[in-house]
Amino acid sequence: DAGVIQSPRHEVTEMGQEVTLRCKPISGHNSLFWYRQTMMRGLELLIYFNNNVPIDDSGMPEDRFSAKMPNASFSTLKIQPSEPRDSAVYFCASSPQGGGYTFGSGTRLTVV
Amino acid sequence: QKEVEQNSGPLSVPEGAIASLNCTYSDRGSQSFFWYRQYSGKSPELIMFIYSNGDKEDGRFTAQLNKASQYVSLLIRDSQPSDSATYLCAVRNGNTGKLIFGQGTTLQVKP
Known about the structure:
Oligomer: heterodimer
Order of helices and strands of chain B: EEEEEEEEEEE
Number of strands of chain A: 11
Largest sheet of chain B: 6 strands, mixed
Number of helices of chain A: 0
Structural class of chain B: mainly beta
Strand content of chain B: over 45%
Shape of chain A: globular
Radius of gyration of chain A: 13 Å
């Protein structure tokens, strides 16, 4: 099992540009989560999906953030337009029903 | 009040000692509890989970849960320098099913 796969590993972009982060969950896991981690705020849950359906997006900071899960093996998190305060490590995680989460390696986003 | 609270540390222990990491949570409906380890620059890694009151042991690790006190702890016996990391307590919200993380405790094991 390759685990949760995220891409890219690092992203540096200019303020105002669109950023798309990608995630492939573990096969058979029916829940997928997007987290953001910063030194100040720790790990924050942005949105999560059950069986490809968004369940709770209350953690999405602003309308600039959007997430999709078109099928069981792929999800995206998009930021448009990006701002310097969006700089963080973004983690995707997946889990079986009620189980522990397995995290991907994360995407380190820097917005300059 | 934060939903999941941990002392940020750093907690420093000598090699071979027992490290004790603590966590409190606010939601009495929480049903499952997890400990993750995160090395600097890496992603969180699940090391223990516990659902019932009492102790659960796995190798050098013991998780302890007291639902009445809303308290979870992780004991690491015979601490090694390789245990030096940030330990994140996570609690699954009973209503939403969401996993809420504490800020993490940084553990330093000194040779």
